[in-house]
Write a structure and sequence with these properties.
heterotetramer; A alpha/beta; B mainly alpha; C mainly alpha; D mainly alpha; A: alpha/beta; Rossmann fold; 9 strands; D: mainly alpha; Amino acid/polyamine transporter I; two-stranded antiparallel sheet; 78% helix; globular
C-alpha cells in the first residue's frame, strides 16, 4: 500500500482539501513530486494564499511551466482568471453586436465582475479547463474547505437554476409559438437560441456532475492534523459533499507524532472514516522546501487501510 | 366598372379587417401573459442589479449576448412598472 | 407533472358525467326541466369542465421544451456517432 | 304613434354632426393633434406592448372593450321616466361629456407615452389624487360584482332557459379555445363552430330550463364561479369566452337595430311619465340629478378612461386616429344604448302584461309598466328584445328573449371574474401607504387569498341582501365620480400643461364641473333619500337584510362623498399653486 493508490486509470484530478494551515500545500507538493516519476504531472494551486511555489522552491507564475522533468506547475492569479473568464463573453458580444461596442459594453460587464459568487464560477470553470488539459494527473491545491465545498456544490446549484430557466423559457416559447401560429394561420415551429443555449448548458452541467461523481476521474483527499478543529471541519466537509455523493478518496494525517494523543486520534479517524485509506505523514523538524528534500521525505510516508 | 372595382376593394378590405380583428381578439390576453412571463424571465436573469437573487453568473454571462433584442422590451416594461393598471384592464377586457 | 394531468383528466371526465346525469334527470319532469338538486349537480359538472382541462391541457408550453430537448439530444447523438 | 326608426336616424345624424364639428374642433384647437407628432406606438416600439395597429381594428377592439352590459341596464331603467329624458341624456351627455372624456383620456395618455390615466392624474394633479382614483375603482368593482350577481340571478330566476344556455356556453368556450390553441383550427371555422354550438345551447336551453327557486343558492353559485374563474389561466378560459362574446354583442346590436327598423316599432310609452318617478329605491327620484345614477355606461363611464389609456393609447398609429377610436367609439356605445332604450320603449306595455305575474313588486308600489321596468328591468329588456325580433323576423319571442338573456349573462360572467381580479389588484395597490405604519396588518391584508376574498365578500354580501334599484345607482355613482376625476384631470392637463387659452380650456372644464356637481348632488340625494332611510326602516322593522345593506350602502356612499370633496380640494389648491407660479413668472 503506497501513494500509488491515488493514481487514476487514464486521466484524473486530485483535489487536496482541508482547513487552512493543515499542510495541504505540503502534501500536494509531496504527492506531485512522487507521481512525476511515472506520470506526467501538473501541480496547480488555486488557493489565494499561493504557497505552492515556496514549498517546491520555484517562483511560479500564472502560466503553466515545466519546473523539472515530468513536473509542471502554476499559481494562477484570481483577478486575471476572472478577467479571462468574463473576456470570453465580451468577445462573443463584440463579435455578434458590433454596434453595441460603441455603447462600451465592457463597463456593463465590469459590473458583472463584482457580482457575488464570481470567484466560485471562475474556479469551477478553471477546473473544467484543467480536465481538458493533457496531463495524466493534475494535483490541485485547493483553498480552505469553506470555498471548496461551495465550488464543488456549484454544478448542482447551476442545474437547479438552469432547469427553472428552461421551464420558464419553454412556457414563453410555447405561448409565442401558439400566438404566431394563430397569426400565420398555420402551425409554426419556432426555434429560440436562448432555449437551445440553456439546454446545451444543462447538458454540460450534467456531464460536469457525472465527472465529479466519477471516483476514477476525481479523487478528493482530505488533509487534517491531530487536533479538534481541523478534524471537525473535515467531518463537515465529508458530510456536505456526501449529499452530492462525492466521496473522499483518502485521508491525510499530517505532522503525525507517535504518542498517545495521536494514536487515540488515529483510532477515532479509523472508526469515523471506515474503508478510506489513511496516509500518515510524520512530523519533520526542518522545513520541507525544494524537490530534493521532498523526494527524500517520501519514503517516510506510511499508507494504512 | 368603377363601382365594381370599388365593391371588390371594400369586400377585400372588410375580409382583411375582420380576420385581423378576429386574430387580435383571439390572441390579446395570451400576448399579455407572454409579455408578463418574458418580463419575469429577464428579471430572473438580471435581477442582481436591483437586489434580486440571481443565477450563478456563468449562466447570466452565456445568455447575455442572446438577450440583447429582448432587452429593449425589458427597459420599456420596467419604465412602465409603476402603472400596471392599464395592462390589467386590457388583459381582463372589462366591459363596463 | 403526471399527477397534475391525471387530476385534470379525472375532473373533466367527472364534469362531463355530472352534466349528462343532471341533464338526464330533466326528462322525468313534464315539461322537461333540470330541477333543484339535479341543477346543483349540473352546475358542479359545468364548473369541473371549466377547471379540469386547465390542469390537463394547461401544459401547452411543455411540449416546446420536450421538442427542443429531443432535437438537442438528437444533435448530440450525431456528434458522438461521427 | 311616432315610429322609432326616425329617432335612430336622428341619433346617428346627431352623432355624425358632432363628430365632424365638435370632434374636429377638439382635435385641432383644444388638443392640437398633429399627424407628424409620433405616437408612443412608434416612439417606444417594442414589438409586444407598443405596436401600431390599424385605425379600424383598434376602433373595433376599443368598442369591444367598452360596450358590453353597461348600456343595457341604464337605458332600460330610465324608461320609467318615459323615453324622452333618456334619449336626450344619451344624445347630449354622450356628445358633450362621454365622448369628450374618452377622447381626452386617450390623447392625454398618448402624450404621456401610453401611461394610464391614474399616472397622468398623479402627474397633472397630485399623487394623492392617484389614490382617490384607485379608491373609486375599488368601490366601482365591488359594487359591480354585487350588481351583476343580482342581475344574473334575476335573469336565471325569471327565465331558467338562459341558465342552461349559459352553463352549456362555458364548456363550448373552452372547446373553442382548445380548437384554436391546441389543434390550431383556423379562426374563421372555430368561430363558426362556436356560434353554431351557441345556437344549439339556446335550443337546448329553450327545451330544458334549469330551475333553482332559492335566490341565495344562486348567489352562492355565482360567487363560487367568481372565485374559481379568478384562478384559472387567462388564455384558457377568458380568451375564448371573450372571443365569442364580442360576436354575440355585435350580432345582438345589429340584429336589434335592423329589427327595430323593419318592424316599424313605435313608442308605446309617453315621452315623459312624470318628473319624479319611484325609480331609485322606489323613492320619487327627480330626473336631474338622479339620471346620472341611472344611465351610467350608455352616456358616460369612468372605466372607459382606463381602457382608452391602455392598449388603445399604446397601439395608436397616428394622433389623428384618436378621434375615431376614442370619440366615435363612445358614439357607438351611445347607439347601442339607443337600440336598447327603443326596444324597451316600444314593447313595455306588452312585456308588462306578459311578465307582471312573475315580478315581485315591493309593498305599496302600484303595479304599472313603469314600476315593472324598475322591479324587473332585465325582464323588460329581454322580453322587449324578444318581441321586437319577433315582430321583425317572426322568431318565437322566447328564443329572442333567451338570446338577449344569454348576451347579457355571458358579459356578466366575464365582468364577474375580471372584476374580482382587478379588485384584488386595486385592493393591494391601495394598501401601499399603510405599509410602513402597520406592517403586520399590511402583511395579512396583502396576502393574495385574503385580497381576493374581501371584494367578493363585500360585493357578495350586498348581492344577498339588496336589489337592483339600490345597488346599480351606487355603482353608477362611483363610476361617474371616476369619470369626473378623469375629466378634471384631462381638462387641467389642457389648461396647465398644454397651456391653452382659458376660453378653449373652459370647453373641457365646464362639462367636468357640471358632471361633478350633478354627481355630488345625486350622491347626497341618494344618501338622504334612499340608503339612510333604508337603514332606519330596516332597523325599525328588525329586517336584518335591509338594515345590513342600508348600512353598507350608506357607509360606501359617505366614503364616496368624502373622496369626492377631497378631490375638489386637491384640485383647488393645485389651481391656486399654479396661479401663484404663473404670477411669479409673469
Amino acid at each position: 500500500m503506497d501513494l500509488s493508490i491515488l493514481f487514476p486509470k487514464e486521466k484524473g484530478i486530485i483535489l487536496v482539501c482541508g482547513k487552512g494551515g493543515v499542510g495541504k500545500t505540503t502534501f500536494s507538493s509531496l504527492f506531485s513530486v512522487y507521481s512525476r516519476k511515472n506520470l506526467k504531472t501538473l501541480a496547480v494551486s488555486i488557493d489565494p494564499a499561493h504557497h505552492l511555489g515556496d514549498v517546491l522552491g520555484y517562483s511560479l507564475s500564472h502560466q503553466i511551466k515545466e519546473i523539472s522533468n515530468n513536473l509542471y506547475a502554476a499559481e494562477p492569479d484570481m483577478e486575471r482568471l476572472i478577467k479571462e473568464y468574463i473576456q470570453g463573453s465580451i468577445e462573443i458580444l463584440k463579435y455578434t453586436y458590433k454596434e453595441l461596442v460603441a455603447m462600451n459594453l465592457d463597463k456593463y460587464l465590469d459590473a458583472l465582475k463584482e457580482s457575488p459568487g464570481i470567484e466560485e464560477d471562475t474556479l469551477l470553470d478553471y477546473i473544467w479547463k484543467l480536465k481538458k488539459m493533457d496531463f495524466e494527473i493534475t494535483v490541485v491545491d485547493t483553498p480552505p474547505t469553506s470555498i471548496t465545498t461551495r465550488v464543488l456544490k456549484l454544478p448542482w446549484l447551476q442545474s437547479m437554476w438552469v432547469e427553472r430557466l428552461i421551464d420558464l423559457r419553454g412556457k414563453i416559447m410555447g405561448y409565442k409559438e401558439t400566438i404566431e401560429s394563430i397569426k400565420a394561420g398555420k402551425k409554426l415551429k419556432l426555434d429560440d437560441p436562448i432555449l437551445n443555449e440553456l439546454i446545451k448548458m444543462s447538458q454540460e452541467i450534467e456531464d460536469g456532475k457525472k465527472f465529479l461523481n466519477n471516483k476514477e476521474k476525481v479523487k478528493i483527499v482530505g488533509v487534517t492534523v491531530a487536533e479538534k478543529l481541523p478534524y471537525l471541519e473535515l467531518k463537515r466537509f465529508r458530510n456536505s459533499i456526501m449529499e452530492r455523493n462525492i466521496s473522499l478518496a483518502a485521508i491525510v494525517i499530517n505532522r503525525y507524532v507517535d504518542d498517545a494523543k495521536n494514536r487515540e486520534f488515529l483510532n477515532e479517524i479509523n472508526s469515523e472514516f471506515i474503508g478510506i485509506p489513511k496516509i500518515i505523514i510524520p512530523f519533520s523538524s526542518e522545513d520541507l522546501i525544494g524537490i530534493y528534500k521532498l523526494e527524500n521525505f517520501i519514503e517516510k510516508i506510511r499508507v494504512i487501510e | 366598372m368603377k363601382t365594381k372595382q370599388r365593391l371588390k376593394y371594400y369586400f377585400k378590405s372588410f375580409k382583411f379587417f375582420s380576420s385581423e380583428y378576429m386574430k387580435m381578439n383571439a390572441v390579446q390576453s395570451m400576448e399579455n401573459e407572454y409579455s408578463q412571463l418574458l418580463n419575469v424571465f429577464l428579471l430572473l436573469l438580471f435581477g442582481n442589479f436591483i437586489g434580486l437573487p440571481s443565477p450563478p453568473s456563468s449562466i447570466t454571462l452565456r445568455i447575455l449576448p442572446l438577450e440583447i433584442n429582448e432587452m429593449k422590451y425589458f427597459h420599456s416594461k420596467s419604465a412602465r412598472a409603476g402603472d400596471a393598471l392599464g395592462d390589467l384592464f386590457d388583459a381582463f377586457n372589462v366591459e363596463i | 407533472m403526471k399527477a397534475k394531468n391525471f387530476a385534470g383528466m379525472i375532473m373533466t371526465f367527472l364534469g362531463i358525467t355530472f352534466m349528462i346525469y343532471g341533464f338526464a334527470t330533466a326528462f322525468f319532469y313534464h315539461p322537461y326541466k333540470i330541477y333543484e338538486d339535479n341543477a346543483i349537480i349540473f352546475i358542479l359538472g359545468s364548473y369541473l369542465i371549466i377547471a379540469g382541462p386547465g390542469f390537463w391541457i394547461g401544459e401547452v408550453p411543455k411540449e416546446v421544451v420536450a421538442r427542443v430537448r429531443k432535437e438537442a439530444l438528437g444533435a448530440k447523438e450525431e456528434v458522438k456517432k461521427e | 304613434m311616432i315610429s322609432v326608426w326616425i329617432f335612430l336616424v336622428i341619433g346617428a345624424v346627431w352623432y355624425l354632426t358632432f363628430y365632424f364639428t365638435y370632434g374636429k374642433f377638439l382635435q385641432n384647437k383644444v388638443v392640437g393633434a398633429e399627424e407628424k407628432r409620433l405616437t408612443p406606438a412608434h416612439k417606444n416600439f417594442d414589438g409586444i406592448d407598443y405596436v401600431p395597429a390599424n385605425k379600424y381594428i383598434l376602433y373595433g377592439h376599443h368598442v369591444g372593450a367598452i360596450a358590453g352590459t353597461g348600456p343595457i341596464i341604464g337605458p332600460t331603467l330610465a324608461m320609467a321616466w318615459g323615453w324622452l329624458p333618456a334619449l336626450l341624456w344619451i344624445l347630449i351627455a354622450n356628445a358633450i361629456l362621454g365622448a369628450v372624456h374618452d377622447y381626452l383620456a386617450l390623447m392625454a395618455s398618448v402624450r404621456y407615452e401610453g401611461k394610464t390615466i391614474a399616472t397622468v392624474t398623479g402627474n397633472v394633479i397630485s399623487n394623492r389624487a392617484k389614490y382617490i382614483f384607485l379608491w373609486f375603482i375599488l368601490f366601482s368593482l365591488i359594487l359591480i360584482i354585487a350588481a351583476f350577481i343580482i342581475f344574473d340571478v334575476s335573469i336565471f330566476m325569471l327565465r331558467p332557459q338562459v341558465a342552461t344556455a349559459i352553463l352549456i356556453f362555458m364548456p363550448i368556450a373552452i372547446f373553442v379555445g382548445v380548437l384554436i390553441y391546441k389543434f390550431n383550427f383556423a379562426l374563421k371555422y372555430a368561430l363558426i363552430v362556436g356560434l353554431l354550438l351557441i345556437l344549439v345551447a339556446i335550443w337546448v336551453g329553450y327545451n330544458v330550463p334549469l330551475v333553482i327557486t332559492d335566490y341565495n343558492t344562486w348567489v352562492t353559485i355565482l360567487l363560487i364561479y367568481g372565485w374559481l374563474a379568478g384562478w384559472l389561466p387567462l388564455w384558457y378560459l377568458l380568451q375564448p369566452r371573450d372571443f365569442l362574446n364580442v360576436y354575440i354583442m355585435w350580432g345582438g346590436i345589429i340584429l336589434g337595430a335592423i329589427a327595430l327598423i323593419i318592424s316599424f316599432a313605435s313608442f308605446q310609452i309617453p315621452a315623459l311619465t312624470s318628473y319624479t318617478q319611484p325609480l331609485v329605491g322606489y323613492k320619487p327620484s327627480p330626473i336631474w340629478p338622479v339620471i346620472v345614477l341611472v344611465i351610467a355606461c350608455g352616456a358616460l363611464s369612468g372605466f372607459h378612461s382606463l381602457v382608452a389609456s391602455g392598449t388603445s393609447a399604446r397601439q395608436l398609429n397616428s394622433e389623428l386616429d384618436a378621434l375615431t377610436v376614442g370619440y366615435a367609439g363612445m358614439f357607438t356605445e351611445g347607439m347601442v344604448a339607443l337600440v336598447v332604450a327603443f326596444s324597451v320603449a316600444s314593447t313595455l306595455p306588452q312585456s308588462f302584461q306578459m311578465l307582471a305575474s312573475k315580478t315581485t313588486f315591493p309593498a305599496g308600489i302600484p303595479h304599472t309598466p313603469y314600476t315593472f321596468v324598475i322591479a324587473n328591468a332585465l325582464g323588460a329588456f329581454t322580453q322587449g328584445y324578444g318581441i321586437v325580433v319577433h315582430n321583425a323576423f317572426g322568431i318565437d319571442i322566447i328564443y329572442g328573449a333567451i338570446f338577449a338573456g344569454l348576451w347579457f349573462a355571458t358579459f356578466d360572467f366575464a365582468v364577474l371574474d375580471t372584476a374580482n381580479r382587478l379588485a384584488r389588484y386595486a385592493w393591494m395597490e391601495i394598501l401601499d401607504p399603510i405599509k410602513e405604519k402597520f406592517p403586520n396588518a399590511h402583511k395579512i391584508l396583502y396576502n393574495r387569498y385574503v385580497a381576493s376574498i374581501i371584494p367578493l365578500a363585500i360585493g357578495g354580501s350586498l348581492a344577498y341582501t339588496s336589489t337592483i334599484t339600490y345597488v346599480w345607482p351606487a355603482f353608477s355613482g362611483a363610476n361617474q365620480l371616476l369619470a369626473a376625476l378623469a375629466l378634471i384631470t384631462t381638462s387641467s392637463w389642457i389648461y396647465y400643461v398644454l397651456k391653452k387659452p382659458l376660453k378653449i380650456s373652459l370647453l373641457a372644464f365646464i362639462p367636468a364641473f357640471f358632471l361633478w356637481l350633478t354627481v355630488t348632488t345625486a350622491l347626497f340625494w341618494y344618501l338622504f333619500v334612499v340608503s339612510y332611510p333604508m337603514f332606519t326602516t330596516g332597523l325599525a322593522k328588525h329586517i336584518l337584510t335591509t338594515t345590513y345593506s342600508g348600512l353598507l350602502l350608506t357607509v360606501i356612499v359617505i366614503f364616496l362623498i368624502i373622496l369626492d370633496i377631497l378631490l375638489i380640494i386637491e384640485f383647488a389648491n393645485i389651481a391656486i399653486r399654479r396661479r401663484h407660479e404663473n404670477k411669479a413668472k409673469a
